[in-house]
Amino acid sequence: MKAPNGRVVAVTPAAYETAGEAERGFDGLRAVADGLTARITHVRDGIGWIWVIPGSRTLPEVRSSRAYERYATCQNAFRRFVVLLAKQPALELPELSERGTSLRTSDVR
């Protein structure tokens, strides 16, 4: 997901087979935006903090696009993500070619 200024604020490690699947996943997040809870953790190999919204599978549903130097800054970034997510309008799905295409949410947003 991108902020209005073009900065990427969140990413998903999941790949979707169709634009419709990606849209349904995003709509599901948008519908529960007010109740989302993130886990804030250190990055694996480096310095900093990231926020992660756990998913139902082994992969996170969504995570911050970058690491933050301070824990409090990471918390604030998650709060801004939730506000931005709640404000997102419904998407118009792009037309797919007859051959079909695999899309990730980054391709749709």
Give the key terms.
109 residues; alpha+beta; 4-stranded antiparallel β-sheet; globular
Describe the protein:
- The protein is α+β, with helices and mostly antiparallel strands.
- Helix content is 31%, strand content 13%.
- The protein has 3 helices and 4 strands.
- It has a 4-stranded antiparallel β-sheet, with helices on one face.
- Strand 2 and strand 3 form a beta hairpin.
- It is globular.
- The chain starts with 9 loop residues before the first strand and ends with a helix.
- The C terminus is likely disordered.
Please write out the topology.
Blueprint: E1 10-11, H1 19-31, E2 39-42, E3 49-53, E4 62-64, H2 71-87, H3 105-108
Antiparallel strand pairs: 1-4, 2-3, 3-4
Strand residues, percent = 5-15%
* Poorly predicted segments: 95-109
Q: How are strands sequenced across the largest beta sheet? A: 1-4-3-2
Counted beta strands: 4
Number of helices: 3
Order of helices and strands: EHEEEHH
In whole angstroms, the N-to-C terminal distance is 6 Å
Q: Please outline the major beta sheet.
A: 4 strands, antiparallel
Morphology: globular
Q: What class, by secondary structure content?
A: alpha+beta
Average pLDDT level? 80
